[in-house]
Design brief:
Layout lengths: L2 E2 L12 H11 L4 H21 L5 E3 L7 H8 L15 H10 L30 E3 L6 E3 L2 E2 L10 H12 L4 E6 L1 H7 L1 E2 L17 H17 L4 E5 L9 H15 L4 E5 L9 H6 L4 E5 L7 H7 L5 E7 L9 H14 L4 E6 L18 H4 L5 H17 L5 H16 L6 H8 L12 H12 L16 H11 L5 H22 L16 H4 L3 E4 L6 E4 L2 E3 L3 E7 L6 H9 L6 E5 L1 H6 L9 H21 L4 E5 L14 H16 L7 E6 L8 H6 L4 E4 L7 H9 L4 E4 L12 H14 L18 H20 L2 H4 L1
Parallel strand pairs: 1-12, 2-6, 5-7, 6-8, 8-9, 9-10, 10-11, 11-12, 17-18, 18-19, 19-20, 20-21
Antiparallel strand pairs: 3-4, 13-16, 14-15
The structure holds glutamine and zinc ion.
Length: 789
């Protein structure tokens, strides 16, 4: 008998009920009891959906009011001491303090996806826990903080309550936990903690203590009659240090004594050299991700002992396409015949947290496109069909199988997916399509002749404050209350104001301010062929914040110019150069649901050509400086290092193809948000942008030293102030950052700009900060560092 389960389920609710309840609660408009009630209702509903879809277990422990890793911090009793809780706070109050800090509310910041600061408060006293991306997803978890003094203790009431809730509703419960090694790995050592002078503290040393508490937790779950615990160890898909790999065996031997059935879950990345280890651990079952790591299957079939359950992740938990059920059945049948005695379970490849909840509310989505899709609820239905086909014979679900086959066939040959012109263009792409005509030194001289910019030229990253006026106009226009003419006029006014302000401040290279853009990916996706948008396809990004990723379903092309009108309009308002502003192919790819019927590299190339055409059109319209934003280039890196080279090769080529349609005297900028670039500097350099602007102010220019050591060849604009806070930096601060920068990078290569776009800022602080920034550039110019060098 085949059984089915899910590794996790979306928690935010079909109408984003959790989001609104949380935000009301934070504003003081909803009390804790009512918030808890919302949680209970959502859990009950989601478990019922799992039961209705015939799953053999409901999954308990995946719900969270903010983030499941934060739940573990409380369950394991390791809230960082720096929060100095008095013991008077409720568990929920402490939870939100960890997640959001304790300062007064700073104006809600809805950044683009690249910036993950959100409702994090910026307070010198007690900043929130750091947030970071969960593996290679767009979900952010709260990073556990460890010091040498960290103690663990069991505080699992909220988990046990949820177990009891599910049991009371008559469900068969499987609890999900993040495994001890992954939990420890995902945390960070904080040497500045209670123990002074202990900078070399290694969080790995906390493992024995942590295991003890995990052991207690498992014993508790056993006592609560939980038959199965899914224990997630996704770090088995990473390149782990030897000590961490070796610790698995000992750790799981210890946990095995608890007597509860453990399903060790791995996902997102191939196990590779950890296959044998994963198969050998003393657990009752193993889950593998056959979507991301089909190559692991052979090894697992060889190594996994026959008495263990094998859970096959056959439904893509990271994407929204309907499963090819016939192909999946064939695969499962082969596995079955190779391991006749084996107990097989079927599941999504990973938690369904990473896809929207259901297609049920997608009334406006084109019916044909919709028939190709499966969100979380529909994925559970697919599991049900697979299970019935395998247990009761395919005849029992012939209708469902026929429907699935028809949708798959229809998508495969649809003219909406395949555009011969795009394919032909890709095939005919000359080898040198990814090279500028001349080397940087030649281009740079021509650009200097054309623009005559001073040393330390000043610019900004693109967006100016998205005022309530701008947002109200857009909302009214979308509701149909404002006609296109009035909307255009409102945007034109906002753009003119941004230009005027920049001229008054004396900035050298201006931007139009992006008033007309809702989001840097959506804005372009809406204008490109091959993209579609769901109405309600929300995916949790962090806390209450959700994103609605565009869906790339077909060959991408550009029916018409996208930004030329607005950019030319802005250029006509000033004599200074107006910088065109585009989103690059990798970011367009990374922040969308992408096709699974062709390599990501191919989709990236299609987008690259569409954006390249836009750049050529901008050049034709006399826009001489054009920025291609690529904040997502680093987050696209595969989890396994041996796959980096391949990714970086096609990703940087896609960027260069985007940028290389222009003349030498057209200047290409790129922008990337804060991330560790030091390990991929050769590839960043190979992108060959004339100017790169990066986020550096928060690391006190530390990031820049990597560029200096590497001798980054082209121009660099290290961000001189942090735009994530309303604080206005002084001129002196920025002067000192620039001097630091000039110590590691030749002064003639330096630009002066903020860290990122200004859309989340208010006008007052923006003007004040930019005024100081321009003044800082003047001071540096007077020092004549460029001539001296
Ligand atoms: N041009 C964009 C802006 O200024 C860049 C945003 C980003 O890097 N995330 O808003
Ligand atoms: Zn940025």
């Amino acid at each position: 008998m085949i059984r089915t389960h899910t590794l996790g389920y979306p928690r935010i609710g079909l109408q984003r009920e959790l989001k609104s309840a949380l935000e009301k609660h934070w504003k003081g408009e909803l009390d804790a009891a009512a918030l808890q009630e919302t949680g209970r209702t959502l859990r009950a509903r989601h478990w019922e959906e799992q039961r209705a879809a015939g799953l053999d277990f409901v999954t308990v422990g995946d719900f969270a009011f903010y983030d499941h890793v934060a739940n573990h911090i409380q369950w394991l009793g390791c809230e960082p001491a720096r929060f100095a809780f008095t013991g008077q706070e409720t568990e929920l109050e402490r939870y939100f303090t960890l997640a959001r800090g304790v300062a007064r509310e700073v104006a809600a910041e809805s950044c683009d996806h690249g910036c993950t600061h959100g409702d994090h408060t910026h307070h010198a006293g007690k900043p929130a826990l750091e947030m970071t991306k969960w593996f290679d997803t767009n979900y952010h978890y709260l990073v556990p903080e460890f010091t040498a003094d960290t103690q663990f203790s069991l505080r699992t009431d909220s988990l046990l309550t949820q177990v009891a809730e599910a049991q009371a509703l008559g469900h068969n419960v499987k609890v999900v936990l993040v495994g001890p090694l992954s939990f420890l790995w995902l945390g960070k050592a904080k040497p500045e903690g209670a123990t002074l002078g202990n900078a070399n503290f290694d969080r790995f040393t906390l493992l024995p203590q942590l295991l003890e508490v995990y052991g207690q937790l498992l014993a508790q779950l056993k006592a609560a009659n939980v038959a199965w615990v899914q224990i997630d160890e996704p770090i088995l898909g990473l390149d782990l240090p030897l000590a961490w790999r070796q610790a698995f065996e000992q750790s799981y031997a210890q946990l095995a004594t608890c007597g509860v059935n453990l399903l060790l879950a791995t996902y997102f990345s191939p196990l590779e050299d950890n296959i044998n280890l994963a198969c050998r651990l003393p657990v009752a079952g193993l889950h593998i991700d056959l979507i991301r790591a089909p190559q692991d299957l052979a090894g697992v079939l060889d190594w996994l002992p026959a008495h263990k359950v094998l859970s096959l992740g056959v439904i893509d938990g990271r994407n929204i396409w309907r499963n090819d059920l016939a192909a999946t059945l064939e695969l499962v049948n082969i596995i079955h015949s190779r391991r006749p005695g084996h107990t097989l379970w079927l599941a999504p490849s990973c938690s369904l947290l990473h896809v929207p909840l259901s297609l049920r509310t997608e009334a406006r989505l084109d019916p044909e496109l919709k028939s190709w899709l499966a969100f979380a609820a529909e994925k559970l239905d697919e599991l049900n069909v697979l299970k019935r086909a395998l247990n009761d014979g395919e005849a029992s679900v012939s209708v469902e199988l026929a429907q699935s086959a028809a949708a798959i066939a229809n998508r495969r040959r649809s003219q909406r997916v395949h555009n011969p012109a795009v394919a032909a263009r890709l095939a005919a792409l000359p080898d040198d399509a990814d090279r500028r005509t001349s080397a940087f030194s030649v281009r740079s001289a021509r650009q200097q002749t054309r623009f005559g910019l001073p040393a330390f030229p000043t610019t900004t990253i693109g967006s100016f404050p998205q005022t309530s006026e701008i947002r109200a106009a857009r909302a009214a226009w979308k509701r149909g209350e404002l006609d296109a003419g009035a909307y255009t006029a409102a945007m034109g006014k906002a753009i003119a104001e941004a230009v005027k302000c920049q001229e008054a401040l004396g900035i050298d290279v201006l931007v139009h301010g992006e008033a007309e853009r809702n989001d840097m990916v959506e804005y372009f996706g809406e204008q490109l062929a091959g993209y579609t948008f769901s109405q309600n396809g929300w995916v949790q990004s962090y806390g209450s914040r959700c994103v609605k990723p565009p869906i790339i379903y077909g060959d991408v092309s550009r029916p018409q110019a996208m930004t030329v009108e607005w950019t030319s309009y802005a250029q006509k308002l000033t004599k200074r150069p107006m910088k065109g502003m585009l989103t690059g192919p990798i970011t367009m790819l990374q922040w969308s649901f992408v096709r699974d019927d062709q390599p990501r590299a191919t989709t990236a190339l299609q987008i690259a050509l569409a954006i390249r055409d836009e750049i050529v059109d901008l050049e034709q319209a006399s826009i001489g400086i054009i920025q291609i934003d690529e904040p997502a280039i680093r987050e696209g890196l595969p989890l396994r290092k041996n796959e980096w080279k391949r990714y970086l090769a096609w990703a940087t080529r896609a960027f260069r193809i985007t940028a290389s349609g222009v003349q030498d005297d057209t200047q290409i900028h790129t922008h990337m948000c804060y991330s560790e670039f030091n390990d991929i500097l050769p590839e960043i350099a190979a992108m060959d942008a004339d100017v790169i602007t990066i986020e550096t102010s928060r690391s006190d220019m530390e990031l820049l030293s990597g560029f200096g050591d590497f001798k980054y060849p082209n121009d660099i604009g290290p961000g001189v102030y942090d735009i994530h806070s309303p604080r206005v930096p002084s001129t002196e601060e920025m002067v000192s950052l620039l001097r630091k920068a000039a110590e590691v990078v030749p002064a003639k290569q330096l630009w002066v700009n903020p860290d990122c776009g200004l859309k989340t800022r208010g006008w007052a602080e923006t003007e004040a900060a930019l005024r100081n920034m321009v003044e800082a550039a003047f001071i540096l110019r007077a020092e004549n560092l460029v001539q001296a060098a």
